[in-house]
Amino acid sequence: MIVRIFELNESSLPTYEELSDSPIESIVQNEYTATRKFKVSWVYAEDFALLLLGSTSFSGYSGTELIINYNTPHHYPHSLRGFLGCREVSIQPFGRTSTSSSVKISHTDAIVEATYRVVPEYYIDHLQEEEIHPAAEFLTLSNQKLYWVGGSEQDADTALEPEAAPGKIIYTTEWTYVAKQLPRVPYGTLEWMGTINETAIVSTKFGFRFYPKTLLYIGVEIEEEQTMRSAEQWTVRFKYMWKPEGWNYFYRPGYEFAQVIYAEGSSSDNPMQVYQTAELNELFFWEG
What pLDDT is recorded for position 112? Predict the structure, then answer.
């Protein structure tokens, strides 16, 4: 997914006045926050708040790949302790134009209180998370070409019985990539389930490099959310299983390492692709 980054320009904010008791900074153990208070016209208070918080919007497609515009949260300008972005806003009325009980009270201004917290300096990391979980597969090996130690070598008396076929635990990793604030669910979310990565995929959080054909796309969880103005946006959790030797390699009885297979009528130069590939990189954010 292509993300186009737009940093908030101060000149695009409605006219505001920062109050005299602003800002206020607080440090609690490892948490650092700052609060700023702004006085703005009541009619522009909501627009002001949304600009401070940032937002995503649909831009279009490049082929099948989703393009997203990301207006980044307002950056706290005073901190030397980290990169702080606006994460929470409250709006309180200030003043009113009518005090008559027969007329609905309307307000002239608003006090917008913005809370800033430490956020990643790399803007795309505002929209993504990653998780690593251990996983394992129990594989029952074939008894073919396996023999008990002792007696005559490799004869019927020492051949491993079918019911004695050994089991092997294959340790692997489940990697979850979470894409947040999506204005649309990207193409491939369902269509590519069960495929493996055609090209290498890099984990920006953990620094892992998953080589081609080693990640199997095993499932997805999709959660719908509503923005402040009732627009739909989505959080999508893409789940992958890693197999370092590749998903089109299989264990052969009597051999230590996994090997490829080919179908009758074909050749070893044209191995069988049990798992088809897809350009799964299109399901990950990158700045464009």
Answer: 95
